[in-house]
Amino acid sequence: MNYCQRCGRQIDEDKKRCPYCGVLQERDLDEEKKPCKKCARSIPVNANYCPYCGHDQAIFEYHETPLDTPDETKPKPEPEAEKIIAQDANDLKMLIDQIRAENEKFVKEREQLAKKAEREHTFGKNENQNPNLIVSTRLMLKDAFKTDKRMGRADFWWGFLGMNLIFVALMLLDSVIYDLWYRLAPKSAELGLSILVYVSFFAVFLVIFTGLVRRFRDAEIPLMYLILMLTGIGELICLLLAIKPQQVTNFDYSFTSLSQKRQNDKNKSDR
């Protein structure tokens, strides 16, 4: 008995066509052929079923392969050779660890040198090369509405002195204006003087306060301490904190304001 190459049903060996599906059975194996997945005999390449064992060729037949047995005749390494190999491996590991440690040390030194060079290139002690009463006061007035940058210690204290001198000058000017006002309109002179004094005080206070913010950024002092300015003795405490020297542990702020940096970056990209 054979099996139909198409439907896999049993048929007589002398049947050339399957009586069930009517497919012609290929007997000539001179054409292209393939091995059966179960019995490994040669069968027509288009056969769905093996005509000899009836196995469906779409189903993979697993054949377990015996594991290789260890070769007892293989010579084992000598104990002395094993010790030498182990020692060489240990020496190699120590050498690799030493090279890795030296490489990490070298990388850290290079990073420190790079940070130091970047700090020296990015920051000076003050924005003005030669801080003095005039240039520092002018800088403080120019940056009266900027808080997103640093202000060096020397620039701040020269500017602080200059703003106090300006306040004294404003008080003298207010007194002169008051005298003239009193002669022309004595009833409203008191009110006018109060307005002038408050405006002068607020203007000077604003310039000093924003300068103090920039000084705190330069010394990397938390800005929350500026809340003390609202208290009586708090202003003195903030001024004492402003004596702290410059600290550079981050590069968030420099002597160039963040808005100016963004504008410079935009101009570069436009080019």
Overview of this structure, please?
With 271 residues, the chain is mainly α. It is built from six helices and four strands. Strands 1-2 form a two-stranded antiparallel sheet. It has a two-stranded antiparallel ribbon with strand order 3-4. The two termini are 89 Å apart. The model has no long low-confidence stretch (mean pLDDT 82).
Map the helices and strands:
Elements: E1 2-3, E2 10-11, E3 33-35, E4 42-44, H1 79-122, H2 133-142, H3 153-184, H4 186-219, H5 234-241, H6 258-270
Antiparallel strand pairs: 1-2, 3-4
Helix pairs in contact: 2-3, 3-4
Radius of gyration, CA atoms, in whole angstroms? 47 Å
Q: How many strands, which pairing sense, and closed or not: the largest β-sheet?
A: 2 strands, antiparallel
Low-confidence stretches: none
Please tell me the overall pLDDT.
82
Features of this protein?
mainly alpha; 3 domains; two-stranded antiparallel ribbon; two-stranded antiparallel sheet; 6 helices; coiled coil
Summed up, what is this model?
The protein has 271 residues and is mainly alpha-helical.
